[in-house]
TrEMBL record:
Classification via InterPro entries: ATPase_NBD, FGGY_Carb_Kinase, FGGY_N
Residues in Carbohydrate kinase FGGY N-terminal domain copies: 1-94
Native source species: Klebsiella michiganensis
Kinase in keyword set: yes
Pfam families according to UniProt: FGGY_N
Keywords, ordered alphabetically: Kinase, Transferase
KW Transferase (keyword) present: yes
Protein name: Carbohydrate kinase
GO molecular function, one term: kinase activity
Family that this chain belongs to: Belongs to the FGGY kinase family.
GO BP terms, alphabetized: carbohydrate metabolic process
Amino acid sequence: VLMVHDYVRFRLTGEATAEITNISGSNFYNQFTSRYDRDMMALFGIEEVADKTAPVVNSTDCVGHITLQASLDCGLCPGTPVFGGFFDVVASAVSSGIDRADTLSAVAGTWSIATSVTDSIIASDFPYIWGKYCIPGKYFVHEGSPTSASNLSWFVKQFFPDDDRCY
């Protein structure tokens, strides 16, 4: 059982792995035990997948190399190293220089997502999404809603109703 970007990496390398920033932000990984959460899988009624999960790797781990078949399929050079990667909003936070709690990354796309980094999970701060950050010993915390694009559309219609360059 793999998440989408883990599956893409599997197709490129032939190695099935789950990247930490992605899997830890899911309901299938327990932040406190640093393991897949069998109890949560049972709660969802999918306990049969517990033994079909992939080993968890760090963002910067080299997890394999482009196979000959993958190179033929997509034009990448065989043998090119492939790394764990990032959860998309974690990648945005990293590229924004977010590495401590007094900084914030805001993404305005289909979703509006604010991300910060902490030294620990604050269990009472819910309904935030928590996950392991790409910096060891750090956690990301997300707050998001699927309203970003609709907010932008409303703003453009309100303030630039006659400007067709905005659409």
